[in-house]
Amino acid sequence: MKIEGAVRLGRKTKELVKELKPNEIAVIDHQDVDQLAAKSLIRSKVKAVINNSQSISGRYPNLGPKKLIEAGIAVIDCCDKNLFDILENGTKIKIKNEKISTSGNFVAHGKELNKSDINQKLKLAQENLANELDKFIDNTLNYAKKEKNLILGLDVPPITTNLAGKEVLIVVRGSDYRQDLETVASYIQQVKPVLIGVDGGADALLEYGFQADIIIGDMDSVSNQALRQGSELIVHAYPDGQAPGMERLKNLDLTAKKFPAPGMSEDIAMLLAYEQGASLIVAVGTHTNMIDFLEKGRLGMASTFLARLKIGSKLVDAKGVNKLYQHNNLKLKSFLQLLITALFPILTIIFISPTLKQLFNLVIIKLKLSLGI
């Protein structure tokens, strides 16, 4: 393997992908690369990915590295040296025989991942899954006890957007959010629900020509463009009231309300809609299972469990709805193929038999006369 190109560095992959240019080499520091990060890197058309952490540790079955390799992007793990102290954006490097060099000088030795390495780690991860699940459940239950009063008795800030009696669509930029958003696009156009973007979910809505009525979150992964669209802004603050995201909005001359609460921003977005009297809450791209949460670096899902428990039947989760839609389309396609196959011998008999052929022609003539053709 020999790869040459300019590097672009970023410790947060979700921030780095906004700056990456095609054919650059991405230098990341991302333990257990998740699918969402991998898809973002693939869309950026990077030449290779050098990771200063383990791309797949075997702790749980993260599929990011597999997605990158399947897309033809080399993944090199380099954990022995801090590349962020050695390389700078734009530095041209060469990767040959797993050795990284610049201007002929050796920088570091890496390990290029192959399918065999990944499959071995995935097998290890599957064997370790029961242990991870046990720890995940314990963590969830412990924090659920601590946070139940905070979640169930939240002091929801007053907002100007009217949600009472309205349907609300909450968009999170989670796994498969693009496909799910495409599937519910007709619902948005016809029903016109109130749109809430959770951080980067506001950008996801913009991608498909929609503008968020409300943007809620830490304000760390939403673009300036989305923030300046005129949406009502709500910053997710820590339970003690600290809200680092407010500083960014002040620098952009934007005003916002604070919503102090534990847990994830998507949870408080749902609770906001519920407390403000929404008739239905539809969620796209949210995190719902252990793998989702581990990929976000969370060891439990207490706030999500409590929020969904409180909202109950008002919540409709659209995560994965595109797969159901594709499945139904497949059934329809199979039915049409079967129908055409069944009609073929009948039509053949009609055109072979003189009597039936004449009868068929008479039916066609009668139809033309009836329609005035």
Short description:
This protein is α/β, with parallel strands linked by helices.
Q: What fraction of residues sit in β-strands?
A: 15-25%
The major beta sheet can be summarized as:
8 strands, mixed
Order of helices and strands: EHEHEHEHEEEEHEHHEHEHEHEHEHHEHH
The largest sheet has its strands arranged as: 7-6-5-1-2-3-4-8
Note the total helix count.
15
Low-confidence stretches: none
How far is it from the N-terminal to the C-terminal residue, by CA? 69 Å
Broad structural category: alpha/beta
Radius of gyration: 27 Å
User: What is the number of E strands?
Assistant: 15
The number of domains is 3
Tell me, rounded to a whole number, the average pLDDT.
Answer: 83
GO biological process, one term: thiamine diphosphate biosynthetic process
GO molecular function: ATP binding; kinase activity; thiamine diphosphokinase activity
Protein name: Membrane-anchored protein
Transmembrane segments: 335-356
Describe the protein in words.
Helix content is 46%, strand content 19%. With 373 residues, it is α/β, with parallel strands linked by helices. An eight-stranded mixed β-sheet has the order 7-6-5-1-2-3-4-8. The radius of gyration is 27 Å and the shape is globular. The mean pLDDT is 83.
